[in-house]
Design a protein that fits this description.
This protein is α+β, with helices and mostly antiparallel strands. The chain is built from five helices and 15 strands.
Length: 267
């Protein structure tokens, strides 16, 4: 297993820059998420912003043949939803927009849930629990912690709320490549003895289903849906392990460190 550790300040600066750009796309697209707009239109707006305003490139476009610049996953789509001009948002929908950017040889990756109008109680609760599970994992990151502890914290919290964790997809190392070692699993399982060290950069991106954890891939080879047609939610951040904790590389302006770390009280 070849895990990258970043100690060069210039490299870390570039990682911070691309992470900030990734987060800014999610901030920018918020006002466009309304009933009637197509996911294809949202994709085009994101792509134009990345290219023309940020002077960067989508890391998703063309990755292993993926045809669009962002992933947009609506309601029972777990991940890798392909934006389409035919798919129009309806009031009450929930959706995940997953943004990955490459600039100056480094990658950033982040996602969040959006509401189309007002979600129902179950959808809102699912999104809240998913985001909290991500924050809980972030709260325990520091050198010396076993990697599997992140998944253990996420699984314990999510299952206590009677939701389920998707097993087939995971977080990952990131830096000079889109996907690197290690795999960051969101449930308690063998981690090959990996211990967190300062300089590691990786994503945490729990996918949580309102029903059972089982999923299936659609005929397009990308779109992943829940088998029981239940709702699914996902939040993702890229983090850098520091000497005393971690830095959230993709922190958005609507998030504050003190509010995130207040989630320690749930541990």
């Amino acid at each position: 297993m070849n895990i990258s550790y970043f100690t060069d300040l210039n490299d870390i600066k570039k990682i911070r820059t691309v992470g900030k750009l990734s987060a800014e796309v999610l901030e920018f697209i918020q006002c466009y998420v309304k009933p009637g707009i197509s996911t294809g239109k949202l994709n085009n707006i994101c792509n134009n912003y990345i290219i023309n305003k940020q002077h960067a490139l989508s890391a998703s476009l063309g990755y292993q043949g993926f045809p669009k610049s962002v992933c947009i996953s609506v309601n029972d789509v777990v991940c890798h939803g392909i934006p389409s001009n035919k798919k129009k948002l309806k009031f009450g929908d929930i959706l995940n927009i997953d943004v990955a950017i490459v600039k100056d040889g480094f990658y950033g990756d982040t996602s969040k849930m959006f509401y189309v109008g007002t979600p129902n109680i179950l959808a809102k609760r699912l999104c809240d629990i998913t985001q909290k599970s991500l924050y809980l994992a972030i709260c325990i990151i520091k050198p010396g912690v076993r990697l599997r502890e992140l998944g253990k914290v996420i699984q314990k919290f999510v299952e206590a709320e009677k939701f389920s964790i998707v097993r087939e997809y995971c977080g990952h190392g990131i830096g000079r490549s889109f996907h690197e070692d290690p795999q960051v699993l969101h449930y308690d399982t063998d981690d090959n003895g990996i211990v967190l060290k300062s300089g590691m950069v990786f994503t945490i991106e729990p996918m949580v289903n309102a029903g059972k954890c089982h999923v299936h891939v659609m005929k397009d080879g990308w779109t992943v849906k829940t088998k029981d047609h239940s709702l699914s939610a996902q939040y993702e951040h890229t983090v850098l392990v520091t000497e005393c904790g971690c830095e959230i590389i993709t922190l958005r302006s609507d998030e504050k460190y003190n509010e995130i770390f207040n989630h320690r009280i749930l541990l």
